[in-house]
Automatic annotation (TrEMBL):
<dbReference type="InterPro" id="IPR000524">
    <property type="entry name" value="Tscrpt_reg_HTH_GntR"/>
</dbReference>
<keyword id="KW-0238">DNA-binding</keyword>
<keyword id="KW-0804">Transcription</keyword>
<dbReference type="InterPro" id="IPR036388">
    <property type="entry name" value="WH-like_DNA-bd_sf"/>
</dbReference>
<dbReference type="Pfam" id="PF00392">
    <property type="entry name" value="GntR"/>
</dbReference>
<dbReference type="GO" id="GO:0003700">
    <property type="term" value="F:DNA-binding transcription factor activity"/>
</dbReference>
<dbReference type="InterPro" id="IPR011711">
    <property type="entry name" value="GntR_C"/>
</dbReference>
<dbReference type="Pfam" id="PF07729">
    <property type="entry name" value="FCD"/>
</dbReference>
<keyword id="KW-0805">Transcription regulation</keyword>
<protein>
    <recommendedName>
        <fullName>HTH gntR-type domain-containing protein</fullName>
    </recommendedName>
</protein>
<feature type="domain" description="HTH gntR-type">
    <location>
        <begin position="5"/>
        <end position="72"/>
    </location>
</feature>
<dbReference type="InterPro" id="IPR008920">
    <property type="entry name" value="TF_FadR/GntR_C"/>
</dbReference>
<dbReference type="GO" id="GO:0003677">
    <property type="term" value="F:DNA binding"/>
</dbReference>
<dbReference type="InterPro" id="IPR036390">
    <property type="entry name" value="WH_DNA-bd_sf"/>
</dbReference>
Length: 222
C-alpha cells in the first residue's frame, strides 16, 4: 500500500469501528475535520473513506449537511431483518463440519465477549459480536451470500449497538453463542437455525421498540 491508501484504510477502520461500537449515533453528522484531527491525517483520505462507506450504505450524504450516520424506519428495519432471516437461515443449513480449530476460534471470541460483558467493556463487546457471527457465516463457504449479509448488517449497524449496550442483552448474547457452538459441534443444523432465529428476533424486537418510542408524540415534546 502507498501512504494514501494506508490513510484511507485507517480512516475506514476508524469510522467502521465507531459505527459498530455506537460511538457515532444515528443522525449524527460526521465532521471530516474532527475525524482527520483524531487520526492525525489530512481530510482527503477521510473524505475518500466516507465516500466508500456511503456506497455501502453505512453512512449517507445529505446535501448542504455532509455525511451522517443514517437513520432507519421501522419498516426498513423489518425488511432488513426479514432478508437477514432468509439468507442467514439458508446459509446455516449448508455449513460444513467445523474443524477443531474453527470451534476453538469461536470459543475464543465468545470467551472474550464474556470477559468484555463481565467487565462492562461493551465497546469491545460489540465488534466481537460481529466477528463471532461472521466467523460462523464463513463456515457456509458462500462468499456472495456472506457479502450480502454483511451489507444488511451494515445498514442497521448503529442501531444494533443499542441492543448490545444493554448489559443484560450482552450476557444473553454470549450465552446463546455458546449454545450455537454446541449445535455446530454436533452438526445439528436445524438447532443452529432455531438458536440464530431467536437471537436475531430478540435484537430486532429491542431495536424496533426503540424506533417506535422515538416516533411517539410524547417523545417529540421538548
Amino acid at each position: 500500500m502507498n501512504m494514501r491508501s494506508d490513510g484511507v484504510a485507517a480512516a475506514l477502520g476508524y469510522l467502521r469501528d465507531g459505527i459498530v461500537a455506537g460511538r457515532f449515533t444515528p443522525g449524527e453528522k460526521l465532521n471530516q475535520e474532527d475525524i482527520a484531527q483524531a487520526l492525525g491525517m489530512s481530510r482527503i483520505p477521510v473524505r475518500e473513506a466516507l465516500g466508500i462507506l456511503a456506497a455501502e450504505g453505512a453512512v449517507e450524504y445529505v446535501k448542504n449537511r455532509g455525511y451522517t450516520v443514517p437513520k432507519i424506519s421501522v419498516e426498513l428495519l423489518d425488511e432488513i431483518y426479514r432478508m437477514r432471516t432468509l439468507l442467514e437461515s439458508d446459509l446455516l443449513r449448508h455449513i460444513h463440519q467445523p474443524s477443531p480449530e474453527e470451534i476453538r476460534d469461536l470459543n475464543d471470541i465468545n470467551d472474550r465477549m464474556r470477559e468484555a460483558a463481565d467487565s462492562g467493556n461493551l465497546a469491545d463487546f460489540v465488534p466481537l459480536n460481529r466477528r463471532f457471527h461472521f466467523a460462523v457465516f464463513e463456515l457456509g463457504d458462500a462468499p456472495l451470500m456472506t457479502k450480502m449479509i454483511d451489507r444488511l448488517w451494515t445498514l442497521s449497524e448503529s442501531y444494533r449497538a443499542l441492543y448490545l449496550y444493554d448489559s443484560r442483552n450482552a450476557a444473553r448474547s454470549w450465552h446463546e453463542h455458546r449454545e450455537l457452538i454446541e449445535a455446530l459441534e454436533s452438526m445439528d443444523l436445524e438447532r443452529c437455525v432455531s438458536i440464530s432465529d431467536a437471537h436475531r428476533r430478540s435484537a430486532q424486537d429491542h431495536v424496533r421498540g426503540f424506533l417506535l418510542a422515538r416516533q411517539s408524540p410524547a417523545h417529540s415534546i421538548p
